[in-house]
Specification:
Elements: H1 5-11, H2 34-64, H3 69-73, H4 81-95, H5 99-117, E1 120-127, E2 137-138, H6 139-149, E3 153-158, H7 165-176, E4 180-185, H8 188-191, E5 210-214, E6 231-234, E7 238-242, H9 248-253, E8 256-263, H10 266-279, E9 284-285
Parallel strand pairs: 1-2, 3-4, 4-5
Antiparallel strand pairs: 1-8, 3-6, 5-9, 6-7, 7-8
Helix pairs in contact: 2-4, 2-5, 6-7
């Protein structure tokens, strides 16, 4: 976890000049306002979750160098960067943190997460019958836990999807706590005769705030190409890749296999790839 900025500001040696302080109406000086500093810390944590440590370090370098606002906002060609950088700059200004102080803090947090990114855990995940001799992680439980862990960003991809109450409830709760939720699905048109019944997107129709995207058949280039990926990524830190579709049969009944990855670069790269597919127009929003 990153060191709290307020503690850092109080503990650091003032070289040169006095420690960073803001005017106080009664005494002429006072500590940084706690709420504003908390907001700045939260915005940096969001930057790490959504941009990754490398891009966050770039953001810190630009801010620390005193670059113009437009330069900071365009420092990284990522769909999420402008939004995240704007919030960092706004909360930095509200907290009265200098460019140098903010840049050093952001780079320090990014460096800590870079070290953390070198360690990761991988577990196997299964749907269907369990065995008494070998303990396994159940897909349904892992999926709901992953959604429950998300605090900033959640990305889902599935070929087929049907309403599944535990997942629907977990996604609704994620939206309620402010998580950006994106689901990429196949369509009946894209699947041809391989899918029947309701559109997979209908599985998310009851959840206000979930953005549903697809791979338009007109942009696939090759006849018969399918949107066949099945995965979930939470905050670019946790990745579930599975053969299971987001249906009750997929996550509970069928024998399906997958892996859960915590840490490392795999979750970040998966989320970045999907973001670039969206930015380049390969994926389009379903209305």
């Amino acid at each position: 976890m990153p060191v709290r900025l307020r503690d850092h500001l109080r503990a650091r040696q003032p070289v040169p000049g006095p420690a960073l302080r803001r005017p106080d109406r009664r005494h002429g000086s006072g500590d940084l306002p706690g709420g504003a500093v908390n907001d700045f810390e939260s915005s940096v944590a969001e930057a790490i979750a959504r941009l990754g440590s490398v891009n966050t370090a770039t953001l810190g370098l630009r801010i620390g160098a005193g670059s113009p606002r437009d330069t900071v906002l365009s420092a990284v060609p990522s769909p999420s960067h402008t939004e995240v950088a704007r919030r960092v700059l706004d909360t930095k200004a509200s907290a009265g943190v200098s460019d140098a102080e903010a840049g050093a803090y952001i780079r320090g947090v990014a460096a800590g997460w870079t070290l953390r990114d070198t360690s990761f855990e991988v577990e196997s995940v299964w749907s269907g019958p369990s065995s008494h001799e070998v303990p396994i992680r159940a897909t349904a439980r892992v999926l709901v836990e992953l959604v429950g862990e998300a605090r900033h960003e959640l990305v889902l991809m599935t070929y087929s999807a049907k309403p599944y109450a535990p997942l629907t409830e977990a996604l609704a709760a994620a939206v309620e706590r402010g998580v950006s939720v994106m689901a990429v699905v196949e369509t009946l048109q894209g699947a041809g005769s391989a899918l029947a019944g309701s559109e997979p997107a209908v599985a998310f129709a009851s959840i206000d705030g979930v953005e549903v995207w697809h791979w338009p058949p007109t942009g696939r280039g090759r006849h018969g190409a399918k949107m066949h990926a099945k995965l979930a990524v939470a905050d670019r830190r946790v990745l579930l890749v599975s053969s299971a579709n987001l249906t009750q049969s997929g996550v509970e009944k069928n024998i399906e296999a997958g892996v859960l990855v915590r840490g490392g670069t795999a979750p970040l790269r998966a989320a970045e790839h999907i973001a670039e597919l969206r930015a380049e127009g390969v994926l389009e929003r379903l209305r």
